[in-house]
């Protein structure tokens, strides 16, 4: 998983509440188990019309936001089903940071597992950042995870809270597998060094004569 330390990017504003996972990535695109290729289907219901043509009014179709690395929305981002394809689609599009007043719990957790930084901010601050985002390429935001700061175009610094463990996971780029290997490396190596089939007798043991008890109880 790619590390997240500092990101400077155009931000795309989606001033909607309850943006659910079906809006982020519609169910018809969930047949794949691959994490790549989903970016083109991100917000498909809003980005394209019934004929598959781009909706020029949707923010991610506007030239200034086609390479946005930050998405700002309102309350309860990622509600709905628990599909992990939602952060996959965001990441494949190029979005590394999502900002909202609140998130659905499972979506919030899935973001960390896939290298996306979800930031909770008061609604007023989200609206202020959306205003910054409305200026397109002339108003880039810088998100500094090490310092837990967002630098606005006018120089103002917005601070945010982050669980120390989750912060470290993103700074080091550790997914679940990498965390397990890091935390339990010695135990894993010890397990791998054990005989692969400890329940099978050794050749020496197997060659020993075996005693057989006869029908009358005598040893043969």
Automatic annotation (TrEMBL):
Keywords: Amino-acid biosynthesis, Branched-chain amino acid biosynthesis, Leucine biosynthesis, Lyase
Functional note: Catalyzes the isomerization between 2-isopropylmalate and 3-isopropylmalate, via the formation of 2-isopropylmaleate.
Similarity field: Belongs to the LeuD family. LeuD type 1 subfamily.
Catalytic activity: (2R,3S)-3-isopropylmalate = (2S)-2-isopropylmalate
Record protein name field: 3-isopropylmalate dehydratase small subunit
Signal peptide: none
Pfam families named in the record: Aconitase_C (PF00694)
HAMAP family documented for this protein: LeuD_type1
Subunit structure: Heterodimer of LeuC and LeuD.
Gene3D superfamilies: Aconitase, domain 4
Record-linked PANTHER family: 3-ISOPROPYLMALATE DEHYDRATASE SMALL SUBUNIT, 3-ISOPROPYLMALATE DEHYDRATASE SMALL SUBUNIT 2-RELATED-RELATED
Name of the gene encoding the protein in the UniProt record: leuD
First-level EC class: lyase
Enzyme Commission designation: 4.2.1.33
Domain Aconitase A/isopropylmalate dehydratase small subunit swivel residue range list: 1-123
Pathway named in the protein's UniProt entry: Amino-acid biosynthesis; L-leucine biosynthesis; L-leucine from 3-methyl-2-oxobutanoate: step 2/4
GO molecular-function term, one example from the UniProt record: 3-isopropylmalate dehydratase activity
Lineage top rank: taxon: Bacteria
InterPro entries: 3-IsopropMal_deHydase_ssu, Aconitase/3IPM_dehydase_swvl, AconitaseA/IPMdHydase_ssu_swvl, IPMI_Swivel, LeuD
